[in-house]
Amino acid sequence: RLLCTLQQQVAKTGFGLTRQLHGISEGAQAPSIQRPIGSNRRVAPAAGTVGTLNWPQSQQLRAVNPFPSTIQAWMMDFGSNNPLEILDVQRSVFAAPIRTDIIHRAVTYERNLLRQGTHSARTRSEVRGSTRKIQPQKGTGGARHGTRRAPQFVGGGKAHGPKSRSHEIGIQRKVWLMALRSVLSAKYAQDQLIFVDNMNIESHRTGDLNRVLQVNGWAPLPSARRDASIMLLPLMSGDLAANLRNMEIASRNISGVSMMNAADAEVYEILRHDYLIMDRNALDLLQSILKPM
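Predicted structure:
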């Protein structure tokens, strides 16, 4: 009883000091001595009190990203390779973490889609021949045999041979988009990603385009004795513009140069080329698709 009385006196005295320090009115209820000011823990009120004051809750701290949301890149002229302006591109798209395991999954998925799956071999039930027993079961001194169509005989069926099937495997769309971001980030980090204002060329001749690629340093010179490795990635509409049509015709006969619509971009095709050249429209499209939610 004495201990309880001392605890009540200490609680009243402490609340009186708190009233003087914080300016709390006399009609307010005493807070629990087990709950510190600013804590959001729910503790039962102390003995002798009716309730607790609604003290301000503590605010959670949030980490601040020290890096800006954009990175800078040059916008070049396709014909002369001269810089035109500095672009601000999304860091989450062109400077994302390079996940080689995710890239491997996407490449396996895309390569399996290219397999026809038409390979097939005949089993012992499909080859031509009789099913009669070719020799007696006993008395020959040799192994036991049945039909001539067994796999151990010449002209017999194939044991566990291939059959026509689909090699397609599944992959989540977010995983594939992460792989595409990783490939674009790797090209940007290796200085193999080139942004151009447009890919308009006046001539459809292969020699003119090959000369532009060599002068800009994107294709090797003839003395190098090796093929170019360039992926052209413009945004193609339903009806190709006249200048893009010239680019498509001129790039057909250059070994190692490929052209693909930015709306149909693939991880494997970008990965297997050294240089990736995309125009402004393709950049806007990829940023709108690949920007994380």
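Summary: Residues 14-25, 28-36 have pLDDT under 50 and may be disordered.
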